[in-house]
Amino acid sequence: MTPVILLAEAKKSAAVTDWPARIGWLVGLVLFIALVYWLMREGWKWRGTLQSDLPAPSSAPEETGPAKLELSGRYHGSTTAGQWLDRIVAHGLGTRSRAELTLTDAGLEVERPGASDFFVPTAALRGARLDKGIAGKVLAEGGLLVVTWALGDKLIDSGFRSDHAAEHTEWVDTLNQMINDTEGAR
């Protein structure tokens, strides 16, 4: 019978790590992740190409009048009206960013640092509501201010989240009142 100590003793121990195989797996994983990100980017660009018939949103006129309401918060994106997952990416409307909203008699001005600003004339506004989600962003019920407006022939929902969520109700009431007053004047 061989003593236990002699069984444990060996001339050469087994390799703990197979470095070439581990490096090969790591390189393969990095290449796979890069491929996934490239495909996502191409899909985003393709969606923009499909929406190229959408006209560019207008920019704010020089004089819009005094501000009725102002809001500081986040712009979460725009979708086709009524389809909260169909994101609009054309003309930078799919880019999330900080946002400063100003509502005047002329319309809704959206200033976005780091992204393109846009302006929604009062005649293009169609409605406002509180909602819980828009393309890639889901919040508590009523946590998102959604403004429906017309861009060319297409109705668009744009989602905003104020730094102070209590402001949302006032915005919905004021926007809907403006829209009703505008439709009554037609």
SSE inventory with pairings:
Layout: H1 4-8, H2 19-50, E1 69-80, E2 87-88, E3 97-103, E4 107-111, E5 118-121, E6 125-131, E7 133-134, E8 137-138, E9 144-151, E10 154-162, H3 167-185
Antiparallel strand pairs: 1-2, 1-3, 1-10, 3-4, 4-5, 6-9, 7-8, 9-10
Q: Give the terminus-to-terminus CA distance.
A: 106 Å
Per DSSP E runs of 2 or more residues, the count of β-strands stands at 10
Biggest beta-sheet profile = 8 strands, antiparallel
Secondary-structure-derived class: alpha+beta
> Tell me, what's the shape?
elongated
Order of helices and strands: HHEEEEEEEEEEH
Number of helices: 3
Mean pLDDT equals: 87
Regions with pLDDT < 50 over 5+ consecutive residues?
none
Strand content: 25-35%
Please characterize this protein's 3D structure.
- This protein is α+β, with helices and mostly antiparallel strands and 186 residues long.
- Helix content is 30%, strand content 31%.
- It contains 3 helices and 10 strands; from the N terminus they run ααββββββββββα.
- It has helices at residues 4-8, 19-50, 167-185; strands at residues 69-80, 87-88, 97-103, 107-111, 118-121, 125-131, 133-134, 137-138, 144-151, 154-162.
- The strands form 2 sheets. Strands 1, 2, 3, 4, 5, 6, 9 and 10 form an 8-stranded antiparallel beta sheet that branches. Strands 7-8 form a two-stranded antiparallel ribbon.
- The chain is elongated and about 100 Å long.
- The chain starts with a helix and ends with a helix.
- The model has no long low-confidence stretch (mean pLDDT 87).
